[in-house]
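Q: Focus on the shape:
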Amino acid sequence: MKTIYRKLLFLLLLLPFCAIAQNKVQGTVLDNTSGLPIPGVNVKIEGSTTGTSTDFDGKFQLASVKPTDMLSISYMGYRSKTVPVGSQSSITIKLEEDSNQLKEVVVQVGYGSVKKKDATGAVSKVSADKLMQGALIDPIQGLQGKAAGVNITKQGGDPNQGFNVKIRGAAGFAAGGNPLYVVDGIRGVDPNTVAPEDIVSYDILKDAASTAIYGADGANGVVFITTKKGKEGKTSIEFNSYLAIDNVAHKLDLLSAQSYRDYTTAHGISTTDLGGNTDWQDEILQTGITKNYNFAISGGTDNHTYRASVSNTGFEGVIKNSAKDRTTAKINVSQKGFNDKLTVDMGVSFTLEKNNYVNYGSDGKDQVLFQAYQRRPTDPVYNANGSLLEVGGVNSYYNPLHSLNNIQNDRDAKFINSNLGFDLEIIKGLNARVGLSYIREDWEKTYFEPSYTYDFGGVPTQIYAGYGNREYNNKEQSMVESTLTYKKTFSDVHNVTLLGGYSYRNTGYDGFKAQGNNPISNILGSDNLLNFENLQLGDNTSFKSSRKDIGYFARAMYDYDSKYYVAGIIRYDGSSVFGDNNQWGAFPSVQVAWNIAKEGFIADNVSAINTLKLRGSWGVSGNSNIPVDAKDLKVSPVATVDASGNPITNFKYVNNGNPNLQWDENTEVNVGLDFGLFDDRISGSVEYYKKTVDNMLIANTNVPIETNFSNTTFINGGKMENKGIEATLNAKVINGNDFTWSTTLVYTQNKQNVLALGNDQYNYSYLDVNYITGPGLIGVSTQRMQAGYELGTFYGYEYAGFSSGKWLIKDNNGQTKYLSDATTDDKKVIGHALPDFEMGWSNYFKYKNWDMSMSFRAVVGNDIYNGTNQVFGNPLQIGTRNVNHDALILNDAGVTEAPSQSLSYFIEDGSFIKLDNINIGYNFPSPIFLKNVSKIRLYTSVNNIFTLTNYGGIDPEVNFSGGKDNKEIYFGTDQFNIYPKTRTFTVGLNVIF
């Protein structure tokens, strides 16, 4: 005991000396107006690397502080402050908002950034705190409904399918229509390889004058994704996790077993009733579960910062055996040197993804949804011996559980994104940058369909002969880009920024596929293709190709006292995918703006207006997203037989060469007005644009074979016009001490018209597109693409009732006739898939430690062709297959004819209002026993809460903006092959140390 007392006495005597040598200072940082604590404030001892940041309660603590030290306090949106320590051990610091700094929002514009107030193009910015919250299938989902002119849709809830993004509508025909994604300066990154928790903001370039800086890549808009970087100060550790449960929002409304029995019995309809009571949708569906874990560590000094993160998300789909598991690891490092003249930044990310697919995209025997929907509810699932029950006598009628449980359809994918950048300040205002990047995407796919024989009444019948394949694909992109930037202000009012640059990109593709039929063993599957007895010539294929793209670009920006602006861009691109006569293209743009609010007649007389900027732009961008060999005479080996029936390899012409193939051109005029009232308490913008796509890239499949090697030639032909209005309104409705409410409303109106098809050499009168399939439907198109028509025009027969059990239609002369007697000349415009307008409404609330957000979305005025109803509303299928209630109505009306053509009867109003997301969170005050914890937030969210619509199908969100099957002209049709939409409930935790 004496020894213990001696040690305690020694410590007590030592304390005063410790206090002299090492003074601890603690404090709280508050908002000067509201008195609320400010988390995340940087607190640093001037002239040293010692620093920290405030926790959620605005508190901080620093050791080794001398009385002579000065504390530097800084935080975005507030005026920085310097506080002497003196003899204080506890300090309360109040920061004042810096209204000028709050306006200094920075947006990416390509190879640089500008302050939002100085932007001259149509640019939208959405920060991470404004994105949709909760369980997200991919990062783009968070942007849905948040930016005017940016349409983000997804058919169904398949975890293995991403979202389709269109900026100001489709911008082409054969060329791809997705925007260019630039992640931390790397062009061409798959956004699915970015963890949502790592994202800081999205910046979106929408007009051609802005996207022209990327030339051929900018035709469909540009989306910048900025991820989190390390910050100067103490090491910060962040942990995020959530658990989400998915339920099917709506099932297809089909007959139950009892309803089926009652109706067929009452109407004397012959059917096979095996005594079952089966809901086949329940047999293939389940409750989906998503688990997410994200861990990040960051920190740095005044010349070195770092951030590393790892994220894993496991998705179980609501169709059994559909799943995805994705792991992403990312690191960003930045180092300064040579007296801060040189900055080196590096980033690397790795993504591993495993996909388990189920087949549901068509109406074949292995298609899970179609087989489940059509199967009679009176069929049991199993035989008495526990085997799956099959029923003969009906074409393409199979138990969906065989496909669901026995077919292997897996993919393993690996992604690498890396970049290395060197930024050197040569002299003040003159910076040189060299950026290197490398992207690699590899995926391997395994498919196996086991052989399957069923005994129908003692007669063994082979349902599946068995099939398998292995497939591998690789894409590599190497890029080097260099820029020289000069910034200078003359006489305090003349601001000039000049940029010149060079870009070189090499992209390679290669892969192979091997397949076989009739497996010897179902156990071996496709692991060894020698397992298949039937391996034919042509079952093994491979490919290898590459493309090179070079660009020279320059940009000049000038403004006079932030009042008058003018900017110009020129990009000169060359690409190997185009013909020898047209490999180079020039893409210019001009932008002007006038900040009217800085004029004396506004600034001196209307205090309510703090921003009023009128903008105008004209620009040209291009599109080169076509097959690398589109310009060439392409020859491909093909398996065939000789005159004696022996297998041989021959060659066929795939497409003709076209040395004149060139860029399509996207020319756009944009006029915009930015406004801010009452110190930006109310702010927003209004845009009008008119975009013309000329020389559209088209794969013409109607080339005369008599004078060509093939019937397909890639050509420049056709013209399309997009025009519309966009509006954004932001308001800080309530800005009190304890309660705040801010809201954002976005409005989009876009119309697309086809002006011409083909060219002088190859002309199209029209193109029939968007075909539907199903029992009794063979080659039925629902839309027509024709000069003078709106894109997405439904084209078919106008329904006029029934007579003698047959469908009646009204021809173009107003005469009524039987559908069976109609000709194609009787078809007419029966609807439009494009909506009149779209809206998004987001609200953000804070009350003390509580926060809440909710997002609505509306689409108004679009038509949907309900192909699902056409298939399952066919009265002739009653007794043979399951049907919906519309089939009973038609049968009661005496209809005895199948609806085998495109009919206005199946056109429905697709307008809807949807509450996409509600998120509620609570930020816990830091407990005394967890002093190192700066933030603890617990939240819950619900996605896809409700939909208000008159549409009779499962869900009205059936891709109303283009992009189905990678065809920009296919949209607006609801067929039975859509993965069920889900409603998601999420509980999550966010902790920062």
